[in-house]
Design goal:
The protein has 84 residues and is mostly helical. It has 6 helices and no strands. The chain is globular.
Length: 84
């Protein structure tokens, strides 16, 4: 799996969006973010700010803790601990 944080954040947004059953366009509207920006974030092409992650998490009705509490981010945490 690609360990690029931008890709991982984008994949997490896509995963949560699909679980909630909303389109990119709907999520973008709920989060007050441009749809094309949302597409590039989900594709790992944007370095999204924590402010926009919070907007998206709120629109998806998940906490930031829930957003980052998944196996990909836990794996990154473990890998980073081993490096230091």
């Amino acid at each position: 799996m690609n360990n690029d944080i931008k890709t991982n954040v984008g994949n997490r947004i896509r995963e949560l969006r699909k679980i909630k059953g909303v389109s990119q366009e709907t999520l973008a509207g709920l989060a007050d973010i441009d749809r094309t920006y949302m597409t590039s974030v989900e594709n790992g092409k944007r370095n999204i700010s924590i402010v926009n992650i919070e907007k998206i998490a709120t629109a998806l009705d998940v906490s930031l803790m829930e957003f980052f509490c998944n196996e990909v981010f836990n794996k990154l945490k473990s890998e980073n601990k081993r490096k230091h």
